[in-house]
Write a structure and sequence with these properties.
53% of the residues lie in helices and 10% in strands. The chain is of the alpha+beta class and 461 residues long. The strands form three sheets. It has a four-stranded antiparallel sheet. Helix 6 packs antiparallel against helix 7 (205-219), helix 10 runs antiparallel to helix 16 (422-439) and helix 12 (353-362) packs across helix 13. It is globular. It starts with 24 loop residues before the first helix and ends with a helix.
Length: 461
């Protein structure tokens, strides 16, 4: 329930002067310096682990594999503790890094995947200062009621419920004041660390940095998020089968800026709240099917998709429609990359080493000069499970497992690099499988995915 805006709010900030935050002034500079020092310590620790790994691989140091694995786990747990303490960009960096199983040890990616984006909210005084900075000192006059208690809070911002003057219920998402400064420090240290390791890594870590940077900066640009929500909503609305079962909040652009996102407030329950869904009288399996089909359509047909289909981003409204929220993590996969991916699967099914090598070069996973090495590797490593599949067997193809096997093979090729977008594409598929297993164990996820796979392989993206 909304509460009136308290008029005894802190002094407003003149946008022309700038917004003072916890990172402003000498004290703020010292806080950021301390953050950088802690991150530098983690980089030194990681460098030591990498040196040990290299020594073990070359037979210089007879290390104990189990003991070394425990060392990797200790390091990753220390990073998780640091990210949880400092919040901001570190949580997001850890989440994105956890996806790069092609360049990071499993012991690290498993721990980073546990990072949670739900953190305690910031004081409302800071939120009010940000609103004043973005919407002007008279920001209160833009709303009828503004709840000072957030309905959700995360590592980069928090959401408050609002009532507009015309009676509409809105949700206002506010970026934490000063978070850009802490993120700049985080990205600078990540860039330094990856630059350092790039000299000895077989993969090009500069692409990893660009992916981390673009993901993080994109999530702090609320205009971009609003545009993504509208584009995806428009794409889904054109699918007659899906449109009646889905809902995306509309964006109120009159009070949206790069740091403030105002959208329709939709009253609903989380899709994984089984008791609440059953009380509303809706079938869980049907809800999972419609949400899965929506994301698969984004990924296989549109090439522009919401990357984070976990239960926290899916609601069920009073009419039984699946509500998709939080479009900050989105990705566009080039049509050329999708075409190369299609050719790669077909080459594996038909055991065509020439097409297999060409597809990886086309997608820029490998360099043209490594084409012959890839072709020879394909001849040796084609998996019998993927050979000469029938249409019904193709429909059961598990792309998440397929990507994992391809990564394992290609690590033997110098400079192997997954193309931009494919990591997120694969992650979204894995989350969709997990969603079905958790909420609707009576259905087979591949039965839903199958038709999209067949259609994808039969056409040029």
């Amino acid at each position: 329930m909304s509460t009136p805006i308290e008029r005894a709010t802190p002094k407003t900030v003149n946008p022309a002067v700038g917004l003072r935050t916890r990172y402003s002034g000498v004290r703020g500079a010292l806080i950021l310096l301390g953050r950088a020092v802690v991150l530098f310590g983690l980089i030194v620790w990681a460098a030591g682990l990498y040196a040990k790994a290299a020594a073990i691989d070359r037979g210089i140091w007879p290390g104990n594999p189990a003991r070394f694995a425990r060392g990797l786990t200790r390091f990753s747990r220390a990073f998780v503790r640091t990210a949880t303490r400092y919040r901001g960009g570190l949580i997001k960096i850890g989440q994105v890094a956890s996806l790069r199983v092609d360049v990071m040890p499993e012991e690290i990616t498993e721990e980073l995947a546990r990072l949670q984006d739900r953190v305690p909210p910031h004081p409302f005084e800071e939120i009010a200062a940000q609103l004043s900075h973005e919407l002007g000192p008279a920001w209160r006059d833009r709303f009828d009621r503004f709840s000072t208690e957030p309905v959700a809070s995360a590592s980069l911002g928090q959401v408050h419920a609002v009532t507009a003057h015309d009676g509409r219920r809105l949700a206002v998402k506010i970026l934490y004041p000063g978070v850009e400064r802490s993120v700049a420090v985080d990205l600078a240290m990540v860039r330094f660390g990856l630059w350092l390791f790039n000299f000895v890594s077989p993969a090009d870590l500069r692409q990893v940095y660009r992916e981390v940077r673009d993901s993080l900066l994109g999530e702090m640009d609320y205009v971009r998020e609003g545009q993504a929500a509208e584009e995806i909503a428009g794409n889904l609305a054109r699918v007659d089968e899906l449109e009646p079962h889905l809902r995306v909040p509309t964006i109120d652009w009159s009070t949206t800026t790069r740091r403030i996102l105002t959208m329709e407030f939709i009253d609903g329950v989380k899709i994984n709240d089984r008791d609440a869904v059953e009380k509303l009288g809706f079938d869980m399996e049907a809800l999972v099917k419609w949400s899965t089909r929506a994301f698969l359509h984004m990924m296989f047909h549109d090439g522009f998709f919401h990357c984070d289909p976990h239960p926290g981003n899916l609601l069920v409204d009073r009419q039984g429609r699946v509500v998709i929220i939080d479009f900050g993590m989105n990705k566009r996969v080039d049509l050329e990359v999708l075409a190369a991916l299609r050719d790669n699967v077909i080459a594996t099914v038909t055991r065509d080493p020439e097409l297999f090598a060409d597809s990886l070069v086309q997608s820029e996973m490998v360099r043209p000069r490594d084409r012959e090495a890839v072709r020879e590797l394909a001849l040796l490593s084609f998996d019998d499970r993927y050979y000469n599949l029938t249409p019904s067997e193709l429909a059961q193809l598990d792309f998440a497992e397929y990507f994992q096997r391809i990564r394992g093979q290609m690590k033997r090729i110098p400079g192997f690099q997954l193309p931009d977008g494919i990591v997120m594409w694969s992650r979204a598929l894995s989350l969709l499988y997990g969603l079905a297993v958790e909420l609707a164990p009576g259905i087979r996820p591949l039965d839903i995915v199958g038709p999209f796979v067949l259609d994808f392989l039969r056409r040029d993206p």
